[in-house]
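quick one, 154 residues, struct below
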Amino acid sequence: MRAGRGWVFFSMKYFTLTELTNSRTAAHNRINNEPTAEVREALTALVDHVLDPLRKAYGKPIYVNSGYRCPTLNQLVGGAAGSQHLKGEAADIRCDDNRALMKLIMKMNLERRLTFDQLILERCWRDRRGLQHPAWIHISYTRRRRNRGQVIYQ
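---
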């Protein structure tokens, strides 16, 4: 365990709570995006159960576009009213090859090495061969109920 910014980090290896709460939009609009203790616990579970295992398996950096969003920030960016981002249960991620990351997530899920609630492949586009490529990947994990393993293409 290590402390920082008033928080205690548990077993996170590749991600930090700071990068999961950072928001240029919040900073620009002077919105306090500090998570509650309950949200910090949910973010830690998301990292421990999904993001860190995924990063380890991928072997290359994975970047967080958006993690936790307080209600004001979520509304400002047009997030869904019931978004799991509000609970610290979701992150929008990207890497050097989002299609390869998407395939890895599906493979790990089939092999029961990765459990997620929702996988939303955002702003998909098709290449010349007709293969879909997401601009980013929304992935969530919850401790409140059974994770659904739901996959959505947008």
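The chain has a mean pLDDT of 88.
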